[in-house]
Amino acid sequence: MDVTADHSCAVIFDVDGPLLHLGKPEEDAFFAPLERVFGITGLSRDWDSYKVRNDHDIIHQVLDEHLGNRFQPSHYEAFVEAYDAELRDGFSSGRLEVSIVPKAPDIVTRLASVPKLALGIATANLRCAAEIRLREAGLWHHLSAFPGTADKSGHKHEVLARVISDLGLPADRIVFIGDNLNDLDAGHRNGTHFIGFHVHPDRRRRLTDSGAKFVTGDHDETLALIRRMLKLAA
Question: Distance (Å, rounded) from C-alpha 134 to C-alpha 207?
Fold first, then answer.
């Protein structure tokens, strides 16, 4: 895809929640290198319990807390290499399987066919994980032009801000779709349209209760909202 194309609007997806389900085996794959390479176990699986909900920052926090003054950049690089290998081996062996949110391939494919509409992601996943998992789902080629990932430090609103900068579009021509309160905050801080999405009603209720105006659990409705927000032809 030509990232220099003259885009007039964009849709940016968070990965986990709107596009893919993050299951326990994939969570295990994230923590496995910490145990195998560094002997670190017993870590929290509550992503909100960490200082910054971003894989880059989580790993830095864990390694800093457990290695102290011994922590070097090479330790983080060793984690990323081991994590990448864990995912590749897991998917190639069948030990890991990607779980796709219903109608996610359909909405991405339909949006990819809209002239001058750019697609991308803003995720707390590292680039290696986002790419491997989205390739397994058959979605990466549509979303790879604007990959906002966690390889740089920062909260979700900072990840999204970097994508917006790369797009070079005004915020009101961008729709961001996310499933968590930090996604809602990211859309609000950056001034984009925001659609809260999750298949589970309690997660949708949490977004609504926190002020999300548009919340859905079905991507047919998501697509209709996008068309209205960006004034796209039906």
Answer: 25
Residues 217/210, Cβ–Cβ less than 8 Å: no
Structure-block tokens of residue 204: 């949708």
Burial 19-49 (b: 16+ CB within 10 A, else e): bbeeeeebeebbbebbeeebebeebeeebee
Residue 217: both structure tokens together:
């659990």
* Whole-number Å distance between alpha carbons of 40 and 105: 37
Count of positions (residues) in the chain: 234
Q: Are 149 and 132 in contact (CB under 8 A)?
A: no
The Cα 225–Cα 234 span in angstroms is: 11
Write out the DSSP string of 165-200: HHHT--GGGEEEEESSHHHHHHHHHHT-EEEEE-SS
In tens, the pLDDT along 12-31 reads 999 999 999 999 999 999 99
Q: Where are the beta strands (DSSP E) in the chain?
A: 9-13, 20-21, 99-100, 117-122, 146-148, 174-178, 193-197, 215-216
pLDDT value of residue 114: 97
Torsion (CA) 219, 160, 129, 98 in degrees, nearest 10: -10
DSSP code, position 52: S
pTM of the model: 0.93
